[in-house]
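Lab notebook, bench 4. Continuing the backlog of folding jobs that were queued last week. Each job is logged with the same field layout so the records can be merged later without manual cleanup. Today's entry covers Large ribosomal subunit protein uL18, a 118-residue chain. Filled in by technician R.K.

JOB TYPE: sequence-to-structure
TARGET: Large ribosomal subunit protein uL18
LENGTH: 118
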Amino acid sequence: MAVSKQDRRNKIRKRIRKDIVGTESRPRLSVFRSNREIYAQIIDDVEGKTLASASSRDKEIASASADRKEQAVMVGKAIAEKAKKAGIDTISFDRGGYLYHGRVKSLAEGAREGGLKF
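JOB STATUS: finished
OUTPUT FIELD FOLLOWS
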């Protein structure tokens, strides 16, 4: 029986999460990508808390007339800005089982432009 895309992504995601753990000093930037939207969260896995989040559904980003790749860059910059306010400058990047390509790469580049180091 063929493996679905979702099952394949979850298998890759588990393999990635074995190595990447968000701590207080270096939290994890988690990315979720749907067909229309993209979401990013900065998570401290030790305490199990989300420290900052941003998505393409935020008012400033959703109101901008941009394609999905440009929205991903804006989400990256927004999450970097929120992280700076929370006192975070270094993170671990969790691509969530997606290829580091397209919108996921654009989000990462936007976060780097915003000043996050990973």
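OBSERVATION: The longest strand covers residues 38-44.
SIGNED: R.K.
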